[in-house]
Amino acid sequence: MRDATAVDTLATADAMQPKSSDAARITRPDLGLAARRELDELARQRLLREPRTLSAAGPRAEIEGRECLILASNDYLGLSTHSAVVSAAADAAGRYGAGAGASRLVSGSLPIHEELEAEIAGLKGTEAAIVFSSGYAANLGLIPALLARGDVAVCDKLNHASLIDACRLSGARLRVYGHGDTTRLESILRAEASAGRLVVVTDGVFSMDGDVAPLPDVLTIAQAYGAWVVVDDAHGTGTLGRTGVGTVEHFGLDAAAFINMSTLSKAFGSQGGFVTGSTELIALLRNRARSFVYSTGLAPASAAAALAAIRLAREQPEIRQRLWRNVRLLRQRIAPAGLLPVSTDSQITSLIIGGVEQALAFADELLRAGVFAPAIRPPTVPRGTSRVRISVTAAHTREDVEEAAAAICEAAESIKS
Q1: Is pLDDT of 266 > 70?
Q2: Tally of structural domains, the chain
Q3: Of 279, 299, 315, which residue is a domain's last?
Q4: Does the pLDDT value for residue 3 go beyond 60?
Q5: 10 in a structural domain
Q6: CATH assignment at residue 333
Q7: Residue 230's beta-bridge partner residues?
Q8: Residues of the domain holding 91
């Protein structure tokens, strides 16, 4: 897709349209009826979802009139409600307005966009950075800008949906290796050695299991075959590494060896996504990443909030330390009940329950106890591995964590009986 244009795409689609005489004979099901059938099937499988309404973001919120502990958020450092972050967002909205106006290539960048990108590049130790409207948009822009037909994307089986979608969108051949299976990764790269471009794509921290990708081995293998490595570090940025830079720092690797993508909506409590890398790569993305070129720039309030959050995280390491104290305490308290997370690599505590019904029952028991941690079901996770995914944050108190642990142990006991 590197050289595809919107005009080419539309022309191809137009040529494929049926002639009017053919169209007259084609009947289609009613949209509402078709949607209803799909919804009914999801409900039958107990996979129908509907977001609950919470009174606020933060470690506690009201749900249906009752105060609950919130253990479902990715606001790992608790910065979404930090006074300095909220003030920065309000000040930026007052100064610049509510929106960015248009694509930055059309209406220009605001100073807050450029300041944020410089701060991100500094955080990640790279030459430059580019900000997108979301992490999903960052991946959908990045990978099709790098790959096209004749190229090959090699993905870990448990990569985030946005990475899989981006690889498919690119037109490149998609090869998948078993989760963390670097032997299989090497086998695929060897078989695809004659391809145009080779890109290995992996999460840094896998969001549902909480484990960390074997980046040193991935990098060594990729370099042996001339492949680039894209790391989606959405759940590692701000939490892992000696100074919280992320998964690459966690392993002591060189940032310049990777194309690093991440978000501003998790540890930094705001909105948006970004890619870091060389000056040339970022210049290419400004021109080729369609989700940047054709999207309105990040809202000034979101950019300012993210900037303030990154600075707080860098200047106050005790925030990250508080997160990890809470994570360790929770795991210590639930271990005697036989509740062991899939992985202890990251701050994510993922407890596999098994079947969909059991996971829903577990989550319902938690909610009755005033703890919100909804069941995670297929297709987000493989069948038979439905779970509750617990996220304590730096904003939770020790008392919050003790309360949460007691509720989790009681819920586990309840669904056994």
Answers
A1: yes
A2: 2
A3: 315
A4: no
A5: no
A6: 3.90.1150.10
A7: 201, 259
A8: 82-315
What is the distance between the alpha carbons of residues 86 and 31, in angstroms, rounded to a whole number?
A: 42
Per-residue pLDDT, averaged over 40-50, amounts to: 94
In this structure, are 137 and 251 located in the same domain?
A: yes
CATH of the domain at 259: 3.40.640.10
Which tens digits make up the pLDDT trace of 188-212?
A: 999 999 999 999 999 999 999 999 9
Tell me what pLDDT residue 29 has.
Answer: 82
Residue 213 is assigned to a structural domain of this protein: yes
Query: To 5 degrees, how large is the angle CA 342–CA 345–CA 350?
Result: 30
Same domain, 163 and 57: no
The answer to whether residues 116 and 229 belong to one domain is yes
CA–CA separation, 137 and 214 (whole Å): 25
Round the average pLDDT of the chain to a whole number and report it: 94
Considering the chain, what percentage of its residues have pLDDT values greater than 90?
92
- Among 315, 345, 379, give the residue marking a domain's end: 315
Comparing C-alpha atoms, which of 258, 261, 199 is closest to residue 235? Answer: 261
Name every residue whose Cβ is closer than 8 Å to that of residue 303 and which is 6 or more positions away in sequence: 92, 110, 112, 113, 116, 131, 270, 272
**50-95 pLDDT per residue, tens:** 999 999 999 999 999 999 999 999 999 999 999 999 999 999 999 9
95-119 pLDDT tens trace: 999 999 999 999 999 999 999 999 9
